[in-house]
Amino acid sequence: MTIDRLDLTTKLYQPSIFPEVARVAGGERSKSPTVVDLDPTTFCDLACPECISGKLLNQGRFSAQRLEALAGELVTMGVKAVILIGGGEPLAHRGTRSVIHTLGEAGIALGVVTNGTMIEQNLPGLARYASWIRVSMDAATTETYRLFRPNRKGESVFDRVIANMRLFAGAKTGALGYSFLVMSREESDGTVVSNHHEVLQGAELAKDIGCDYFEVKAMFDEQHHIVGISEHMRESIDTQIEKARYLESADFQIINSSTLTSLQEREGPIQEKEYRTCRVTELRTLVTPSGVYVCPYHRGNPAARLGDAVTESLVDIWQKSDRSIVDPSRDCRFHCARHRSNLEMDEIAAGRGRAVLDNDTDLFI
């Protein structure tokens, strides 16, 4: 059985991780996280105006030595999958290549979320070891890219990123994704600029590049609440996605993120949660130069910080930390991608879970 990459609840039933999922669902602490999001650095070569991590950028990085030691700790702990991600651009750190090799050789599934500007320099390791790479594009033309994803000089590096994606598409063993975050903003003169009109064109470009999927997402504010859009934009996006369906094949998917679905269904910015403990924090965590946090939604939040991975081993942090410090009913009223996973673990705890799958296919729960 092949699991849809966004079907996070079904992923819980994979045989190599379900026993740990069941223990956590029953209220036990995990011995180690199953999936780790790792920010090698907070530095980024782009200057995106809508960057949700803008206030956290350019505030430090792991040393190359500590980053390599962290990779070793992840292997020792038995982590199943690691996502190189960031506040910053993960491929900007000179030690990332070594991390990719260490994790890949250990058989740990590896995902990379990147702006794509540095794929070429890291191509051998990425092509060999990455289970997937998702490139944050948010545009289909160089001019729109410059408006929403400029470099520090205010220029567009759109053509370089597209060329890098083509290089990876020609060498990859894993999947390549084209991520399109729908954005709009009001300029100082009162005009509104948006990228929503390039959804279809972006999907066509993704297929031409050799991507495996094209994902459309809704924009967040700094508190991770979904930002509403006009009815005109909503209808335009829906129409373009439907038109893009002709591109789909066994090798290419058009994906609506959970946030876009929430936007389409007019659910509003708030996602209420009745449970007070997030079980997923026992299965996933975020490691950054500024600290270890319960999850990426709380990146930089002192109230959700578990420890300091710069000065402490991740093993020690995990053994002593309290992952229940966040109360979802109070602290996570945004749309969380793992909300349904928490609800599913309640079902597992109550004995109403599903049958365990025959094999593992995607450990990025």
From TrEMBL:
Pfam families: Radical_SAM (PF04055). Residues 30-260 form the Radical SAM core domain. InterPro entries: Aldolase_TIM, Radical_SAM_PqqE_MftC-like, rSAM, rSAM_sf. CDD domains: Radical_SAM. GO terms for molecular function: catalytic activity; iron-sulfur cluster binding; metal ion binding. Gene3D superfamilies: Aldolase class I (3.20.20.70). Keywords: Iron, Iron-sulfur, Metal-binding, S-adenosyl-L-methionine. This is MoaA/NifB/PqqE/SkfB family radical SAM enzyme. It comes from Amycolatopsis sulphurea.
